[in-house]
Amino acid sequence: MNEQKVVQEILYMLYLFQKENGTMLKARPKQMNHREVMVLHAICRMHQSGEPVKMSDLSAYFKVTPAAVSQTIRIFEQKGWVERVRPAHDRRTVYIRVSAEGRNHMGECLEQMQQNLQSFITLLGEEDAAAMVRILRKAIDFYRSHHDSEMKEQEGESEC
């Protein structure tokens, strides 16, 4: 198989993964998607340090714009998964806290995701599962180094 064919096949497989994930979520409308679980989980982890979580903390953590974080939090708030907290001493600052409902729902969804992944790993078998982990690690390393080199190029351009 030539490189171009491999690229096309991978793109098609990624499309199918996305399509199947969307179909599964539509069948279970109360189910959180992976991104939603990860955002709530990050808020919980950040809050465990004892410090309240600000919108700017989330923006920096996920490397997205404050507007993107605000939109996500607004949707989560409508679903009852998070609460905005304004301290009495500074009404301008807004902290985010995962609600009890959000924690419970996130826990259920994480458990379901883990069960699904366990079933998939069992289907793959030990050798293919180990190969998949190895390949995913290579992919992450590639994208991290690619992103780092892009950032350095952009920094070099701005130094003119």
Question: What is the rounded Rg?
Answer: 20 Å
By CATH, the superfamily of the largest domain comes out as Winged helix-like DNA-binding domain superfamily/Winged helix DNA-binding domain
What is the percent of helical residues?
A: over 70%
CATH architecture of the largest domain: Orthogonal Bundle
CATH topology of the largest domain: Arc Repressor Mutant, subunit A
Large-scale geometry: globular
Q: Supply the number of structural domains.
A: 2
Global structural class: mainly alpha
Q: Please trace the helix and strand order, writing H or E for each element.
A: HHEHHEEHH
Kindly estimate the percentage of residues that lie in beta strands according to DSSP.
Answer: 5-15%
Q: Tell me the strand order in the biggest sheet.
A: 1-3-2
Alpha-carbon distance between the two ends = 44 Å
Individual helix count: 6
Mean pLDDT: 83
Write a brief caption for the model.
The protein has helices at residues 3-27, 34-48, 55-62, 66-78, 100-124, 126-158, and strands at 53-54, 82-85, 95-98. It has 160 residues and is mainly alpha-helical. Helix 2 crosses helix 5 (100-124) and helix 3 (55-62) crosses helix 4.
